[in-house]
Amino acid sequence: MVIARVEALIAGWGMEEALKRAHAYTDAGADAILIHSKSGSPDEIYEFVDKWNNQAPLVVVPTKYYDITAEELQEKRISMVIYANHGIRASIRAMSEVFSSVYASGGTASVEDKIATLDEVFELQGMPQMKESELKYSLADSANAVAVIPVAGDHLQEHSMKNISEDIPFSMLDINGKPLLQRQVEVLNKCKIYSINVVVGYKKEEIGVNGVRLINNPDYSNTGTLYSIMCALDDISEKTIICFGDVIFDHVILNRIMESKEDITVLIDSSYDSKHTHDNRRKELVVVEGDALKAKRSLHSNALRRIEKIGSDLNPTQCQFEFPGIVFLSRKGVEIMKNIYHSSLEKYREKPFYSVDKFEFALFSDLLQEIINSDFPVYGMEANSGWLEIHSFEDYKLACTIIK
Predict the structure, then answer these.
(1) C-beta neighbour count of 84 within 10 angstroms
(2) C-alpha distances in angstroms, 45 versus 37, 49, 71, 328?
(3) Are 379 and 266 in contact (CB under 8 A)?
(4) Could you list the residue range(s) of the whole structural domain that residue 110 is in?
(5) pLDDT in tens, the chain (404 residues)
């Protein structure tokens, strides 16, 4: 549609010139005429309408004669009304008021209820549709994968981090200007994973990271990591990457493990050495079939090792690897895990289960061992780099040193 704008009245050339130009535009093929006026009254426009005699649809911009309504203009045979600059004028006034308030108060708390949320901004940008299209058309192995991050625990048992954990949830631990959880989300997004389920509990109201779905574990103080993971996994049927909430990882290690064709693949740390482990942290250790090659240097390989044993109750001297908390499940792997979990829940409710005195406190590795004992294969992908676990203040300082 072509709308021709007539500026003769604005320029002071009079009504006859305005009509002359309008006729010339319609003769040349214009579909409608925008007749403009700077008068504070609509009388000039009404005169044009009467003399135009409805030869083509008319459009007006009532910036100066703002007392008139769209309904009144319609009654005068105006087909379209354009409010040309009211949006930008409103935004100028709003921005001035907001920044004046920010300047006066020294912060943004006083204006948060007066401005749009980031979710509203993303909605206007079409971000949800973009992510949906990216998932639909992406050729990456991670397409349609979802993520689960359990962060419900309080971490108060880790002595060197207790003072920090008393103030904030571990997932909001600041690492050079960004919360730990945000850094995890950014890496997952880089791997084309946008459906991210975060299981919260301790100080859940303080967890504020965009782009995640928060799932509450109201019984976090009476349950273990496994229960938190199942709070999310029970509603998932797609292939899934599970990342513990105290692990920072890079996109390379995630892409490597997601290349696995097995149903359940666990990242296993090949740098584990029982002779050089001095902390008292409860480690989830791994024994694989065959001998493990230990060397200072190695090449990246996606070869997998079938796991025989995994858990925190194993003899450290008999274990070859450590489980740092990253797992990839195929769709079938998700179903296997859910089925074994619910059958174990019925069988072991409030009873001992591998490393714990009560099933409700089970670790994720406890369920993995039950899956292995149920004759479903669980594989380990060896690696000695690409992630960092934060269990102590020393770990935290190291993370702040190497992550920018």
Answers:
(1) 11
(2) 7, 6, 15, 69
(3) yes
(4) 86-115
(5) 999 999 999 999 999 999 999 999 999 999 999 999 999 999 999 999 999 988 999 999 999 999 999 999 999 999 999 999 999 999 999 999 999 999 999 999 999 999 999 889 999 999 888 877 766 665 445 557 999 999 998 776 776 777 777 788 888 888 888 899 999 999 999 998 999 999 999 988 888 888 899 999 999 999 999 999 999 999 999 999 999 998 988 899 999 999 999 999 999 988 877 665 555 667 899 999 887 665 554 555 567 999 999 999 999 889 989 999 999 999 999 999 999 999 999 999 999 999 999 999 999 999 999 999 999 999 999 988 888 888 788 888 888 888 87
Task: Quote the distance between the C-alpha of residue 174 and its chain's center.
Answer: 18
CA distance 131 to 127: 6
Which residue in this structure is represented by tokens 């639909």? Answer: 136
Do 182 and 308 belong together in one domain? yes
Cβ partners under 8 Å of residue 55, min gap 6: 22, 23, 26
Is there a domain that residue 120 lies in? no
Let me know whether 329 and 261 are in one domain. yes
Task: Note the pTM of the prediction, 2 decimals.
Answer: 0.65
57 and 201 belong to one structural domain: no
Report the distance separating Cα 248 and Cα 267, nearest Å: 13
In the structure encoding, which two tokens stand for residue 246, read together? 């105290």
Provide the number of structural domains found in the chain. 3
The whole-angstrom distance between residue 29's C-alpha and the CA centroid of its chain comes to: 50
Question: How would you class 60 by CB atoms within 10 Å of its CB: exposed for 0-12, middle for 13-18, buried for 19 or more?
Answer: buried
Q: Which residues pair with 215 in a beta bridge?
A: 199
Please check whether residue 326 is in contact with residue 253, taking contact to mean a CB–CB distance below 8 angstroms.
yes
